[in-house]
């Protein structure tokens, strides 16, 4: 029913161009890392569309990946609804969120979330920022998110809640500069997920598929936890030991990733 | 799956005709303003279908825009399920909700909602009336709607609740004349949203996309607020200061608008 | 995505045949009334598919209409999932639910619901029996269904709850004979809706579109009432006076009916 | 929208090959039973896709059937998202969950659930393991699942809850060997359904369609029970006598099965 733009880039060389464009003289703009495997760009595009198809993102929110050839850069769509992203829309930015080769493209105002997390967390290879609907209530009530089932075992590291009022008082709630981005990264600490009060959440992972997996199951877990609370009685959550034991299992998200790609990309 | 009528008007001139039709002699019917840019008609048609696709409207409800060339007129579909509206169905009415050129078309019985709000609120350029399902419970319980997240920051102006019993006693609940429309406009006051007890709500904005944006996020916020209440504990809502700071951000709804159009219109 | 059988009967004459088939000699089977306008059969088929598309029916449940030419007969699909019904599947039955011309077709085991209601209620022209999911909880808790918004105003006549244990003790819950059908019709009385404890509900109306309308908004109202209860506080329901004032408005369901047909039939 | 692989096996003979492949010399791998009717393989493939389409399975979970020609074997997909399963993916395993003819295909890590249940329950012909979302809260709260309506009457045998901590302490929650599978089968006992704390559930039946039917209505019932609890008051559940009386009715699931197949397979 939705006539989205074609998923494949029109010309295979474009990725190469994106990645290598800023081999200009010294000074700004920052020089690119190295060329990016088009299959990895495809994964990033798929991630954007999967998160939209699975209800984690609507017209807003974004997903990024660290540049595979240069840890001081990351890749992210230009400002665009996630369901509409194509490979042509992927831009390269440095960790201060300056574009390598903007070519007139508008960037997300909240890209500083991504840059500052990549800077603070060398282990992180992908970042999702969303307004994941079932999660938002847990950022505005005193009830902490906890893992209700094994698929969300990673939540045994209880997500901290970022309160923008603590660092910036009354704002429009957006993370629009590196100072706010750094404060959010500080709240995230070494966790896989942080909630943002009255806003949404950030989810990180060691790969794009794992970050997507965690973002989706954070949303699912929020629904299940709310349902369990409504049913009543003490809730028997996944323990820290059980959650930690999931770490190794979670590395293998291929089965779900293939399904999500099919559903989101229609192929 | 749905074989809706084509979105584009069959002939570009028809809009012109609609807008200029009533250049007849003095007296009734009221004379039209000036011709309307077909792209604006398209936006109004898109708004109707978007609100249906996003679950704000079902077979009932309607959206209107003030005539861009004549502030004493507004544009609105003939009586038709919102998902089925085409440019050919758009009619021009004066602010007392008399048609400029009815050509036998049936009008919505509750069009007086729109006319009276346009009359009372010169700043308003678009009006949505819906039975937005998650919102209805907040019109029949003592719990006021409040903004749970930044996307619904405009709700910092707490929506008043219109009680038709106060002005008309026992009725069939419909706003079927200008007196009732004026009473509703009076309750709305300077707010962006008013609830209608046991009926639905009205949402207004300075443009069609912004009114649509607010109608959609009023529905989403109602779901999130109900979920937060069910989770329990004091809820940390968006403050008035934060809500007010969203005003400027909200002007830029283009990213979501493009997505919604694609989803609703399939192109 | 669903490759349902074509909606239109393959040959226009088939309806005629169905309706006039049993012009056989005296004795059983009962003789048919008169031929049925194919457009009315189409409405009955559409009703079945609409109720499936709108989530009132799943693989079970059924809708019937009184024979337009013979009030002692009614029309109903053979035993089949509602989404799959075509005009060819419509059978004619007498009010004791004997088939006029079975031609080997299997009938619904619970057809006695329909026959006995048509017998008890001369004003009723259409009957829906469903397991409408949001309604079931109101049949097993002490909380009565009440109208939360004007679209469900007909619920001002509070739906009684049929308890099969009162008339038949421990059963498999099904209405499988005329005695049970009559008991259910007795509980329904002069109301538009009756709940069936641990089973579902029946909805009746003066036409197929109105019965469908009521079945859909009974489901919607159940969702809204549950949401209002969860939000908390005294609930301000539609009053009996307001509900009664809806009777006339409700006669005009054409706007929704056209939409539902488009959605359910894809045309 | 989803471009899933074609449902029909490319070549009719493949099933024959699957079933008869391991007619190799004595020793491992275990020898196959006899050839399987391709229509039964098709049912198993349909079951997998139906459970995905109906929201019982997501990217994870699986369904199996006992080998119709050899009760010491069972049939199950290779490790794959359920919505993507084709007849070519079906493997044969013995009751210790060793493959008859792996041909390099990866198996589900939790296949031991199926093997051990088939071993413990000669009456069981099909097993579903899922993370059925509405059911999970009932496995982590003290509230037992009970049947709210006749379609879920089989739940009159109250589902026991399997606690993996009791048999294995802190784990990654998975049933990855025969010892854990046997413990789960022991908890299941003679019931049709067992919940798995913080994980999901298992549903068994005397045929593939009946196991699918029970898995779907276990999910539906969990939603209805949660809704009834939220509405409040004592809940009038289906009694044991009524539930038991459903046993015979339940054997006839053909009407729903045909619908589900159409929806899941698009034909």
Features:
7-stranded mixed beta sheet, 267 residues, alpha+beta, homotetramer, 9 helices, disordered N terminus, 7 strands
Query: Strand order, biggest sheet of chain A?
Result: 3-2-1-4-7-6-5
Give the N-terminus to C-terminus distance of chain A in angstroms. Answer: 15 Å
With helices defined by DSSP (H or I, 4 residues minimum), what is the helix count of chain A? Answer: 9
> Strand content of the residues of chain A, in percent?
5-15%
For the secondary structure, the number of strands of chain A is: 7
Unreliably modeled segments of chain A: 1-26
| Assembly context of the chains | homotetramer
Helix percentage range of chain A: 25-40%
Mean pLDDT of chain A: 90
The topology string of helices and strands of chain A comes to HHEEEHEHEHHEEHHH
Structural class call of chain A reads alpha+beta
Show the largest interface: A-B, 34 and 39 residues
Shape of chain A: globular
Question: Major β-sheet of chain A, in short?
Answer: 7 strands, mixed
Computed CA radius of gyration of chain A, to the nearest angstrom: 18 Å
Account of the 3D structure:
Four copies of one chain form a homotetramer. The first copy, chain A, is about 40% helix and about 10% strand. Mean pLDDT of chain A is about 90; it is low at about 1-25. In chain A, helix 2 (about 40-55) packs parallel to helix 7 (about 210-230) and helix 2 crosses helix 9 (about 255-265). In chain A, strands 3-2-1-4-7-6-5 form a seven-stranded mixed sheet, sandwiched between helices. Chain A has helices spanning about 15-20, 40-55, 110-120, 135-140, 165-170, 180-190, 210-230, 240-250, 255-265; strands at about 60-65, 75, 90-95, 125-130, 160, 195, 200-205. The first copy, chain A, has about 270 residues and is an alpha+beta fold. Chain A is built from nine helices and seven strands.
